[in-house]
Write a structure and sequence with these properties.
about 10% strand; single chain; alpha+beta; about 250 residues; five-stranded mixed β-sheet; globular; 10 helices
Length: about 250
């Protein structure tokens, strides 16, 4: 009982968000194609949870959302059955948060995408914003949170059970369960990032942006390299994925 009661909360905490990070850099005006502007969910324009802002708080980002969100939602409806494809997109109002974007689910299982103010300021152009937004939407479309929860549960079960069978104390079993959840949650994370890069490329392209130009933000962020069980793949591999997908569009 003790082991099984720990697994689900651990899986949820491991898989709660998927991050793209970027260091501080000077912003400049950028590109973006000529896709028609579509209306987005009015709730994202007029209301936001405590601690967050609507996308209208940043005019450049709001313009990107108006074009990318309908494409992402159409991709979601086409690729999934029964998934909530009504994205809620917000800006983290905390100015001290580092450059970051993540996708998660709210209590009603609605997909939520959040950009920090630092990432909005760091973006060199609208193509980068569109690519990152497409990437985060792709995580939801591909079902990465439940997949990551599943691998976290499996990892927790394997290590926790092994510790229990080996006669470990309750405290040690807890530690092994947490370790198993962390390892399991990261087991396929690099593949998920590349999958989100590929679909995010399609979404940004279909919204009229240049995903290859957008993926140049990988040139400015720390390269995780070939790290065992690292959460993100090497930057060069991610750019290669974007370039290959874009070449076939």
């Amino acid at each position: 009982m003790r082991l099984s009661s720990l697994i689900l909360p651990l899986a949820l905490s491991v898989a709660g968000c998927v991050e793209v990070t970027s260091p501080t850099s000077a912003p400049s005006s950028g590109g973006g194609g000529g896709a028609p502007v579509s209306s987005m969910d009015s709730t994202a324009l007029t209301s936001a949870p405590a601690g967050f802002q609507t996308v209208n708080a940043n005019a450049r980002f709001a313009g990107v959302v108006r074009r990318v969100e309908p494409i992402a939602e159409a991709q979601c409806r086409q690729a999934t059955r029964g998934s909530n494809c009504d994205f809620a997109i917000y800006i983290d109002a905390n100015p001290s948060e580092p450059a970051n974007a993540y996708q998660t689910l709210d209590n009603a299982n609605r997909p939520v995408i959040v950009f920090t103010k630092a990432l909005l300021a760091d973006a060199q152009n609208t193509d980068e914003l569109a690519f990152v937004l497409g990437h985060e939407a792709a995580h939801h479309i591909a079902g990465h949170i439940p997949k990551q929860q599943g691998t976290a549960v499996l990892g927790a079960l394997i290590l926790g059970t092994a510790a229990g069978l080996g006669g470990a104390s309750a405290e040690s079993i807890d530690s092994f369960t947490r370790l198993g959840a962390a390892v399991g949650g990261r087991f396929f994370s690099q593949d998920m990032e590349l999958e989100a890069d590929a679909l995010g490329t399609v979404i940004a392209h279909d919204a009229g942006y240049d995903p290859v130009l957008g993926a140049q933000f990988f040139d400015r962020i720390p390269d995780p390299g070939e790290t065992f069980l690292g959460s993100h793949p090497p930057n060069a591999k991610r750019q290669e994925t974007v370039q290959k997908v874009a070449a076939n569009l």
